[in-house]
């Protein structure tokens, strides 16, 4: 059983560009959450998707958007990249009423 | 707004030592608390989850306690090993499945 997978593993972009990160949840999971982890910090909640809709959102600007597909996989899109967007982006999946979230290995984004 | 603080930020111990990592949170209305391990540049591995109605959880050499009323949790690691070297993160959930994390404690266990 594959766990949570994310692609790509690493990405380098320049300021102003747009980026798309992808996540496939653990088998049987239908809820996907995205987190941003800056260097030396704990992960910060970006948003959560369930039934192809954004269910809740953290304190991130509209430049951060997402999507969930019918197969429960998800994308995180970031527009107009800033240097401060450089971070490890983590995806986590879960099932309703199941407390433990399973995290993927993350995508490391570097914005130059 | 929930805030999670972890002390110390870094800890270096000799192999075999027992140690305690601390986590505090400002809003006691939590659904559960989790301890995660993160190896450098990697994702998170869940170690222990404590429901708000529970006082502690144990897994092998790890024991986590929760005092919800005082907003504190501790992670106890017995007989530490070099393989325990990692960053340990504490996170609380307020029932919305959104985790609020501390900044972590970076543990180094020296052979």
Give the H and E element order of chain A: EEEEEEEEEEE
Mass-distribution shape of chain A: globular
Shape designation of chain B: globular
Total count of helical runs of at least 4 residues of chain A: 0
Secondary-structure element order of chain B, as H and E? EEEEEEEEEEE
Give the structural class of chain B: mainly beta
- What is the residue-averaged pLDDT of chain A? 94
| Rounded radius of gyration of chain B (Å) | 13 Å
How far from one another are the termini of chain B?
41 Å
| Biggest interchain interface, per-side counts | A-B, 26 and 25 residues
Please state roughly what percent of the residues of chain A sit in beta strands, choosing from under 5%, 5-15%, 15-25%, 25-35%, 35-45% or over 45%: over 45%
Which residues of chain B sit in consecutive blocks of at least 5 with pLDDT less than 50? none
Short description:
The complex is a heterodimer of chains A (112) and B (111). By secondary structure, chain A is mainly β.
If you had to describe this structure to a student in words, what would you say it looks like?
The complex is a heterodimer of chains A (112) and B (111). With 112 residues, chain A is an all-beta fold. Helix content of chain A is 0%, strand content 51%. Chain A is globular, with a radius of gyration of 13 Å. In chain B, β4 (32-38) and β5 (44-51) form a beta hairpin. Chain B is globular, with a radius of gyration of 13 Å.
């Amino acid at each position: 059983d594959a766990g949570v997978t994310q692609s790509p593993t690493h990405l380098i972009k320049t300021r102003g560009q747009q980026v798309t990160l992808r996540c496939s949840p653990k088998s049987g999971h239908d809820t996907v959450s995205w987190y941003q982890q800056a260097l030396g910090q704990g992960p910060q909640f970006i948003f959560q998707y369930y039934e192809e809709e954004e269910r809740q959102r953290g304190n991130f600007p509209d430049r951060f958007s997402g999507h969930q597909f019918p197969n429960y996989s998800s994308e995180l899109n970031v527009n107009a990249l800033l240097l401060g967007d450089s971070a490890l982006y983590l995806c986590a999946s879960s099932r309703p009423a199941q407390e433990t979230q399973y995290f993927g290995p993350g995508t490391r984004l570097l914005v130059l | 707004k929930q805030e999670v603080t972890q002390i110390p930020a870094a800890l270096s111990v000799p192999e075999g030592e027992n140690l305690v990592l601390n986590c505090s949170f400002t809003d006691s209305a939590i659904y559960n608390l989790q301890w995660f391990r993160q190896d450098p540049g990697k994702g998170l591995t869940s170690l222990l989850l404590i429901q708000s109605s529970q006082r502690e959880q144990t897994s092998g050499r790890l024991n986590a306690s929760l005092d919800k009323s005082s907003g504190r949790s501790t992670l106890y690691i017995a007989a530490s090993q070099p393989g325990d070297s990692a960053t340990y993160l504490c996170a609380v959930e307020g029932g919305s499945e959104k985790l609020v994390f501390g900044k972590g404690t970076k543990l180094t266990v020296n052979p």
